[in-house]
Structure formats: structure tokens, C-alpha cells
Write a structure and sequence with these properties.
By secondary structure, the chain is an all-alpha fold. It has one domain (about 5-100). The protein has 4 helices and no strands. It has helices spanning about 5-25, 35, 45-65, 75-100. The N and C termini lie far apart (about 40 Å).
């Protein structure tokens, strides 16, 4: 796969997800209902996760575009490093959210 295709596709998807989640969070009407407060994953927290992870992907891609740590033509192994860096943040956030749910005294 071509480096420019990977960068372009990831950038477009990340920017679109960030835009959609910002629109949702900007126009959301906070409704305090008893059923929503007991939900494990609310729409607000899901959109916040999408915003944070898409922002992280855009930040990583910008760093790779500006600093070019792999040069102009990355190898397959370097693509794996790029994917690992981009996927590390969402995996960490989901891990911490799961650990919080395991705590019996935590408020969901």
C-alpha cells in the first residue's frame, strides 16, 4: 500500500470523525434521566471517545508528516510502527475505562 494513500485515508477518516463528534457534543441537549445515568456507555461518552481518538490520529499523522521519521518512502515494518502508535491511545483509553468499570465503588 502506498504511503500517501494510508496518510490520506487516515487523515480523512479522523477529520470526519472529529467533525461529527464535535457537532454532536456542540448541539447535544443534556437530558438527565435515571436510565441514562446507569448506562455503561452513553452517547456523550462514546462521542467523546471518538473525538479524542480521532484527534490523536490527526496529531500522530501531523507529527509523521512534519518530522518524517521514516523518510519519504516507509517500509512495511515502519507502517506497523505507525499503526502501533496511532492505536496505542484508544487501546489505553478503553483499558482504563474497563478498569474503572471493574471498581465496585465507581460511579458510572
Amino acid at each position: 500500500m502506498n504511503w500517501e494513500v494510508v496518510n490520506g485515508f487516515t487523515g480523512i477518516v479522523s477529520a470526519t470523525c472529529a467533525f461529527v463528534s464535535l457537532l454532536y457534543l456542540g448541539f447535544e441537549q443534556r437530558r438527565a434521566t435515571s436510565t441514562e445515568s446507569h448506562a455503561t456507555l452513553s452517547m456523550h461518552s462514546f462521542m467523546s471517545l471518538i473525538l479524542a481518538t480521532s484527534g490523536w490520529a490527526l496529531l500522530c499523522l501531523s507529527g509523521f508528516w512534519i518530522f518524517e521519521p521514516f523518510g519519504c518512502c516507509p517500509l512495511d515494518q515502519e507502517y506497523l510502527k505507525l499503526y502501533g502508535v496511532i492505536l496505542a491511545f484508544p487501546a489505553g483509553v478503553l483499558f482504563l475505562a474497563g478498569m474503572k468499570l471493574m471498581n465496585p465503588n465507581s460511579e458510572t
